[in-house]
Amino acid sequence: MHPRTLVLALCLAPGLAACGGHKTPAGPTPAAPQITCPADIAVHSVPTPTQAVTFDPPMVTGGATPVQTTCDPASGSTFPLGATKVNCTASDASSRTAMCSFNVTLSGFSIGATKYEAFGDSLTAGETGRANITPLAVDAANSYPTKLEQELQAAHPDQGIVVINRGVGGFNTDQTQDSIRRFVPADRPDVVLLLVGYNNLNDNGLCSTGKATTQPCINGINDTALGVRDCIRRVKEANAGVQFTFVSTLTPPGPSGSNRIDPNAINQANIQIRQMIAAEGATLVDSYNVFLGHEAEYVNTDGLHLTPAGYQALADTFFAAIQANVPLTPLSRRQ
To answer: Average pLDDT, stretch 212-226?
Structure first.
């Protein structure tokens, strides 16, 4: 290249002043990013313990591009009842950050009953019925009253909800009546929960597989229904201010097992139990139909007692009946 041409090329090179050999001054450094969060969000009358909430992204100004913005929890996340702080951060290409936060508050319903008392036998107590365990193990943490209390507390936090478990393994309807007489006047629950009758059918194999049409089993079925009726009446006679009595149908048996009750006997008992519930003004909890088709999953190896999944399903069924029948009042919008 001709020397004069080379000098001209160098003079025109980017970043150099014309023939001066100095760099062109860089532009001004972008200001640090600034972030402004959305206003606090309030969601009212939430019917479940959690709900997804979406919100607008924060407003970001300044910063060296690209500027990344994140929020934790993110928009669209599931939020629990109560107040949750959302923290948002803007970060630019120069590793400078800015942060802001806002609250997402979900308010649900106040429930018109806070004290519950569950009566029944080993399926209320929470016995497992697993093979090779003698005596039957009580798994109180997985019993349906424990699971139900957790569900009610999650749906109605800070309302002092308690579920008392009065289930006793081996109790029949007569013994459950005695337990109701003893505890309801002293405990004065708002709601009584009943699941009882298995031992009326299972006494000395009375209604074991293949015996549903025998006269002793038929008598046991009748006694079961009348016993459930009398349990409901004992609750009324206690005159303890009980607002609701929820009564569950008997759950179906498992595919096999040493404690298995004939499915026809269970079905016939439930037909009469439903009639007694309606006649006595109690509230039906139809666990039988919820369990149908899930026996292998919900019923343990002895054919009678429940797996943890079964006890959870039982709690879910009671919970749904309670939510549908006990009055719910939207919490104040000022809360």
So the answer is: 97
